[in-house]
């Protein structure tokens, strides 16, 4: 609040009347009157400056470091007007939001050297009424005349204070004390302070916004650069700095070495075109340096002034980071954990414990077991328990595709620039590549894979550019891969690489006691997935499941459990609800084909009643077909 000049004599009379008689004159400014009343209540002496509360030396240093942007800025403003302050005997104070003096410029409040006052608190509870206390309370500029000061020792000078507000919050108070009141118009002091206030608020607001932008830019998975003509980088975010450090392009502060000096193909990049006013969006770019070749997806936007390019902004996403993002976006991550694998038999516990140990190392791994034993689930569980869990899990079934397609899937294709794409080895970078049915991998593909794993470098088909990668291979084989290798049916060097660690997954018939647990676990998962009640297996149904040989292992058990779960009314699965042929059942072809009939009989374990239930016919009908096919019912 800016006030007109008041009669010092009248103001002094108001003050004495209040101090001596406790009577408040109605002409006293309401804010001053309020503060006088509060000062009196607090029992603050009105004669001389009391001993001030001060920060410790270490705490003052800490706060000054915290507030250095504001201090540096006010230093600059003061240095420009220092002569003005000296001529008119003005003092300038910067206080924090708690009224502690952070910086004292010139002879201060009151006639104390800077060392005496910095770190001191000048709040109302310390010195009573002052322009500082009024501004702290009301968050508005205020000019206080000498006789209105609470302490008589301070009444020789007028004081004007302004709040520095950022985002609606008081962050600082700036105060000017004028001892030679008659020499300098109050309007000049007020105007100076209001100018300082505006400039500081604008500056600090801008710094706060810039700090927020820096935090945002340092958090995004992109490298961001601001580059001026000639190739000098005047700004880079955290990721950008780390990439520049990798090519020895680090200079001082925010300015780094000239990209034209460190990027060998600079004139063939979108940056060079950007300075000609040509923008580029999401372009795959190769950056060649003395130390390394980088690939990323780059966007370059020219910044123009008066139709001339003054600088460019470049945003790039490293290819390896993009692959990781894409891999996670499309679900290339582990769906199972080691704890999701169910079993209590010694053979299962031994396998599970070994898997936990193997997961913690970084060796390539071979999983061996019959079809349907859960090798894929095991691969997911090991990946999730490994140090690569944050990376992608990429799967490729070697027996499902033609050899030439398999090679392209593994290594990628670069025969045509517009169609260049990474293979599974690159997509799995930083994570795990699961190769199922690896025994079906052709020799020439296996040889190329072995070489890539040894060198940790891969070339896309049709290209000569080598790209580094870091992956773990988990391979799965339904048969004995060592025996196949000894027979020459599998590439020996690849077998040697992937079999450093090996886990044998037992068939279901080797862990019969786990079958009821597995079936119940499958049923619980189905109930949860489909928001249905859990169904209970009767003991007779469990015995039937345990008596079967399960040539299809857990995969077959999954199909049987699913059929029973969805086709059983009520919440109990009985013996009659179990069809050991699984989800598809048996067609009527068994009536004409002896081999199909025999296979169904084997599935039923040679039990006539069970087979009759499976085929939904009477025992008499079964005896007739046994006779037809020349089979003994025993």
* Oligomer class: single chain
Shape: elongated
Low-confidence segments, given as residue ranges, are: 249-255, 582-586
Strand pairing plus helix content: what structural class?
Answer: alpha/beta
The radius of gyration is: 41 Å
What is the arithmetic mean of pLDDT?
85
**End-to-end gap:** 110 Å
Roughly what fraction of the amino acids lie in strands? 15-25%
Fraction of helical residues: 40-55%
| Count of strand segments | 19
Strand order of the largest sheet: 2-1-5-4-3
Helices, by number, come to 25
Largest sheet: 5 strands, antiparallel
Written description of the protein model:
The protein is an alpha/beta fold and 634 residues long. It has 25 helices and 19 strands. The strands form 5 sheets. A 5-stranded antiparallel sheet has the order 2-1-5-4-3, with helices on both faces. The chain has a 5-stranded antiparallel sheet with strand order 7-6-10-9-8. A 5-stranded parallel sheet has the order 12-13-16-11-17. Strand 1 and strand 2 form a beta hairpin. The longest helix has 34 residues.
